[in-house]
Sequence to fold (310 residues):
Amino acid sequence: MKNEKAITIGLPRGLLYHRYKILWQNYFQNLGFKTRESAPTSRMVMEDGARLAPDEACLSEKIFLGHVNSLIGKCDYIFIPRVANLGRNLDMCVRFSALYDTTRCVFWETGQKFLTCSIDVVNGQREEDAFCALGQSLGCSVRDSKKAWKSAKKMEEQAWDSAVKEQERLYKSQALKILVVGHSYILEDPYVGGVILQNLQKLNVIPIRADITDREYVIKHSPDLSPTCRWVMSRELIGSILQHRNKTDGIILVTAFPCGPDSMVNDLLTRSIHRIPVLQLIADSQSGTAGVETRLESFVDIIRMKKGEL
Fold:
């Protein structure tokens, strides 16, 4: 469907954007709407978000609000979905359920319009249903909305399969390999995770991302380490560690302070992982990634010494 009004939908480049960007972009474009993404994270974006965010917000939420701020007045709507869970025992952090309402409260004086849909599989709100309702709220038919979602979902799945296969090919390299464990919105953010990945590559290390994995497989196996963890993205990372830990030379746990789920899961991981070096890196709005280069150099040197390469 081509929309004659050419409405522009803003997509803040933070949080769930990094998980669902292909789905969102193609869904709106399939319905004839334009999309506008915020620019990659910079220190200014982070500082703007930190100034606007509630005191208890984690660094990733502050960055997200900075991206929203950069889109204010530049698009007709800014899209912020509510995502409660993806099924039974597949809960999202509560921030994702509240993000739409939190953001509207932060920017209520701007007059900016926001757009949302609700995904809560446990209570019968599937992703497909949510996007059908979203399309209808924008004046599109149920048929066109469902067709747009199905097409976008197929593209998302194809792109994800390709990314997983590309990562598996990294194991063919003879270089040192380190599993970098963090949520996609951390590792794909150039201001936070990008610095870590780039510095590892400069040290001739192959970074293996724990978030790029066969999600169905790792979710199934995550109870082998933690049978009680309910957060879906944490379960994915736990299962991915179990899948990769015997194939990598070290593990780096990357957290955006003060992430509640990560604080508990990382403690579990550091107590459970043995015979492989583990490094924890925590980024916040004050220090950012200060000192990361030195800590990574030391960690890599420890691994090389352990392997007898130094």
Remarks:
- The longest strand covers residues 250-256.
- The chain has a mean pLDDT of 93.
- The CA atoms of residues 210 and 237 lie 6 Å apart.
- The radius of gyration is 20 Å.
